[in-house]
Task: structure prediction
Amino acid sequence: MVMSCPWPILRIEMMKRLLLPLVLVLPIACTSTDEIIIDKKGVDMARYEQDLAECRSYATGVKTGEKGARGAASGAVVGGAIGAITDGGEGAAKGAGVGAVTGGARGLSQGEQTEVRVVKRCLAGRGYRVLN
Result:
């Protein structure tokens, strides 16, 4: 017995074209290390800007994009499985698309939160009072 794939190649290619721009744009739209607030009393702002830049460079080690990609992949698998159970082959493709978007967004969000924590801890370690 030969089984056919429940996701036609055209649907997969269409999902890639729709999801790739979203995955690439989301990290740009959510730069949240700009929202860090410190107590500026007695702070040399030129030194702070230098320290902030260095702390942000450490945060690049978080690999937020990879977390988004892993989230999209796992979301697509789970969504596809749920869609296949509830609505067969077409439901699997739709579920995979929805799962990829939500999983990717969740992965990116977690990566960004980790980046912010790295920057805040770095600044606190350098003696700044981080207020948020």
About this structure: The chain has three helices and no strands.
